[in-house]
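Sample intake sheet
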Amino acid sequence: MVLSAIPLRPRSLLVPALLLAGIHAAAQQPVRDRDAFDTAYVHDYSRILTGRLYMSTKYNRLLLGAREGERDLSFRPNNRVNFGVGASYRALTLNIGVGIPLLNRDDAIRGRTRYIDAQANIHTKRWATNLFLQRFAGYFISSHQLSELGWDQRTTFPTRADLREFNVGVSSVHIVNNERFSYRAAFNQDAWQRKSQGSWLVGGYATWFSLRADSSLVPSALDDRFESGLHLVKGTFWDVGPMGGYTYTFVHREHWFLTGSLVVGAGLSVQQAETDPVDGGATTRTRTDTGPGWHAQIRAGAGYNGAKRYVGISFNQENIGYLIDERNRFSWSVGNIRLNYVHRFDLHIGFMDRGIGWFRKKVAKPVEEALPRIQKG
């Protein structure tokens, strides 16, 4: 075979040469880790051990909006201030806190609250999720004094030991700019946001809320200041809907940061409520309503962050309200405030690395590979 028998021109070789060069360049490029950040903006420390000391308080509030010109009615539990220790490694964060006795001796002022308060904030590269479960028994009224209500109690604030509340909820948002912005830097402390950056957020929420009292939430001295639908004795509320918003972290000199986040949403609310009569009736009234509701999520953080240490404060709050005529001025909220001191240790935990590697190989990777086939089907 004589290769020179086939005439070749330089131009005829240009396209194949470019294709071969492109294939060679692609072969030389490392496969990009989908879980990796742009290191010019974010350093990820989730694969080494992060330890923390913290002080925190979790809270809850019920708010009944008064008629125009009158003061709203606010109920709060007697919260506790906790001191705790915790650690983060890979996808796992564990915190253990106990009450600080010297800061929690105020039952004579605000009454006693018995409670279960479990709040989890799960921050991955792409998602920020809040989970909460609360049960409170015993509230005080923070908006009015005993003399205004005509009550005779030994506590400084008016108290409602009969008021019991239970809620369960979840909210989750997708971080659109997840390669250059990290929620974990401000709120989980296992990353470092080195440059200012923000991101749009898109997600949804679902909540269930229940309350029960021996009599109307509205004290008799304030009857005429609140709409009839707010004279609640019992109530159960379901809510679900989409939400969206924006978050931004401002960074000064690479280490000092200020993070703010606002997400709002609206969706469907179903309510079954029992109210006390305020027009001279003899029995309570039970009614089921369906209509719109709203949800607002606020997050904020500030402090110092670096390769080894983090010192900062964080704030997280979920607000849920209703636009149904009977209770369009009723809302409730859950949240927490935490002061953190964090140190990152250059330590790797072998059995956890092996376990996560096994999970990704046996579960995560097969599921990821199956998704395109399912979508095509």
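Comment: Confidence is low (pLDDT under 50) at residues 1-32. The first strand starts at residue 42 and ends at 44.
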